[in-house]
Amino acid sequence: MDDQRYHLTLYAGARPVMHGWWGKRATADRKHAAWKREHGSVDGARIVLVDEETGSVLTIWPDEP
């Protein structure tokens, strides 16, 4: 298993300010939810979860139009 398959990035505006990598999707999803609670009030916050194996964006918060 690739322990860095799921990459989570917290952006403040256009600038990445925090990264995390996990091997299990369930762990990455839990971290995504935690980051929303902990950092969602940061001005311009955006949280993106990417599957590094496929290059797919799995989720973005807040939802983009």
Put the structure in a nutshell:
By secondary structure, the protein is an alpha+beta fold. It has one helix spanning 25-39, and strands at residues 6-12, 15-22, 45-51, 56-61.
Question: Your description of this structure?
Answer:
Helices cover about 25% and strands about 45% of the residues. The protein is an alpha+beta fold and about 60 residues long. It has one domain (about 5-60). The protein has a four-stranded antiparallel sheet with strand order 2-1-3-4, with helices on one face.
Count of DSSP-assigned helices: 1
The share of residues in extended strands comes to: 35-45%
N-to-C CA distance: 34 Å
Structural class: alpha+beta
Largest sheet: 4 strands, antiparallel
Q: How does the overall form come out from the CA principal axes?
A: globular
Work out the number of β strands: 4
Listing every helix as H and every strand as E from the N terminus to the C terminus, the arrangement reads EEHEE
Rg (CA only): 11 Å
Determine the fraction of residues in helical runs and give it as a percent range.
Answer: 10-25%
**Unreliable residue stretches:** none
Round the mean pLDDT to the nearest integer and report it: 93
Structural domain tally: 1
Widest beta sheet: strand line-up: 2-1-3-4
